[in-house]
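User: For a reading group we're discussing how well predicted structures match intuition. Take 2-haloacid dehalogenase. Before you show the prediction, I'll give you the sequence so everyone sees exactly what went in.
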Amino acid sequence: MDVGALVFDVFGTVVDWRAGVAREAARLLGPGVDAAAFADAWRARYEPSMQRVRGGERPFVPLDALHRESLPEALAEVGAGPVPDDVAGELVLAWHRLDPWPDAVPGLTRLRRRFVLAPLSNGGVRLLVDLARRGGLPWDLVLGAEVAGHYKPDPQVYDSAPRLLALPPSRVCLVAAHTDDLAAARARGLATAYVHRPAEFGGDPVPPATDPHADLSVGSLEELAAALGC
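Assistant: Thanks. Here is the predicted 3D structure of 2-haloacid dehalogenase, as structure tokens, for the group to look at:
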């Protein structure tokens, strides 16, 4: 692939959202709550909350606001009652405290030798900065939903990357563990690379091993670096 920049989905592709949210939930909610089930219940509200923005039912707000709004329903689903505002705030910040997959930092470090790197995530700017500082993610800049004022898979998010990087869309590659994200990027002319993350949802369901429509399918970011000659 003749690309000059790689942009990355973050939740599930670069960081392990499920383990991180469950870890913080266990700390903040105590042993009476199934922390993994809570993480899954909260994540299940991720897409519906963004769809209300995409569909024009409400103006764009950063992901932290959507997470805060969906928190009471997620707590109720796992039998937890309302929590004080300070605990709710700390739970929202769980999404700022996720750890990278073990291959992420080594792979990104290798890739940065040849390519401009940026997240192209539905996470807000401060969230992405916090993840980078916590995990040592070597981004060159931050792109994504809050920069574009839209949530993926709205085309404006994908279009913003080549525009801001001053590259043709074909020279920007989206790297993601989600085939729907990659399909939306291809529809806007971006190159795509699929990363298999079998443990993203705790092993159930297991995502497909490859994306036959992607330019590359790999099992890690280190494998991606090797495939791109880094």
